[in-house]
Every structure is written in C-alpha cells, then in structure tokens.
Amino acid sequence: MPTIVVEVMPKAELLDPQGKAIAGALARTGRGDFQVRQGKRFELSVEGQVTDELLAQVREIADDVLSNSVIEDVVNVRVLETAPEA
Amino acid sequence: MPTIVVEVMPKAELLDPQGKAIAGALARTGRGDFQVRQGKRFELSVEGQVTDELLAQVREIADDVLSNSVIEDVVNVRVLETAPEA
Question: What are the phi and psi torsion angles at B60 (to 5°)?
C-alpha cells in the first residue's frame, strides 16, 4: 500500500514558541546551540497505485485540511519508498 | 546555516487518534479513503559545517529529547539541501 508523506512547517516569518522552547531546553542541558522549529509530518496510505491525479488530490488535501495556510506552509509532498515486502 | 531535519512518527503498532480523526474527516468530506498517521517534523539549524559528530549529536537529541521512545519512532534524520544563497 503506497504511502505519501506530507510535511508542514510554521511559516518562516512567524514565531514558533514550541521550537524556541526546545532550543532553550537543548542549550540549558548542554546539548548544543541550535535554532529549532517544530512542524508536522503526515503519512497518507491508500490502496492502489500512486497516479498524478492521486498526488494532485493529496496536495489539495495538504493545502485545505492538513495545514493552515495563514500560519503554515506545506514544505513537501512525496511518495515514500516502501521497504520490499517479505 | 545548515539545517537537519528530524522526523518522528507514532509507533506503527499504536493507535493514532489524531490520524484517525483526519482520515474520518477526509472520508466524510468526500476527499477519499486514506489511512492517516500524524507525526512531527523538526528542523534544527546550526552554525558551521555538518560533521559526523554533529549528526551523531542530533541523533542523540532526536532519541532523548524530540521523541518519546515508548510511543514514537525517529523515522528519519537527514541534512536539508539548502537553496543556493543569492
């Protein structure tokens, strides 16, 4: 069953308090000085083949349902290479 | 500034109520019949070069801080190809 991955991140120009909290925790615990942003990753699995229409449909879902276009960007929609089935 | 992407998903054998809710919403609104799982995507940006030590450090952070190993798996740690700077 093919799986399509949709990645959503907060827009670059917006504050990301979750990411800031993680960066602060990493610095306080001596794990290094990183800038961190937290977004979402969705896996959509579907029966059948991945066609261009299916990908277009998933892109529409990513824009309309999985992300809030006011504050988030869909940064990636890609087909997951599946491990060979035993 | 190089960016490393960490992807975290709920373990396959566990229920994912958020994903189930999204799948239900897609089906009810006539957007298709998908299985959906929702996870997290982190971007860690750091000054300097991406070395093997840095990647090992980020993998440790992914396991210890960014994911809860009881219920989640780190599915991917990768360096983001950055757009060429103007």
Answer: -65, -45
Domain count, chain B: 1
The whole domain housing A14 covers: 3-80
- Could you tell me if residue B86 is inside a domain? no
Cβ–Cβ gap B42/A34 under 8 Å: no
- Do A35 and B45 count as a contact with CB atoms less than 8 A apart? yes
What CA–CA distance (Å, rounded) separates B63 from B48?
23
Rounded to two decimals, the pTM is: 0.91
Cβ under 8 Å to B: A residues 23-42: 25-26, 29, 31-42
Per-residue pLDDT 10s for chain A (86 aa) are 899 999 999 999 999 999 999 999 999 999 999 999 999 999 999 999 999 999 999 999 999 999 999 999 999 999 997 655 54
What six digits make up the tokens of B49?
Answer: 């070069």
What ipTM does this complex have? 0.91
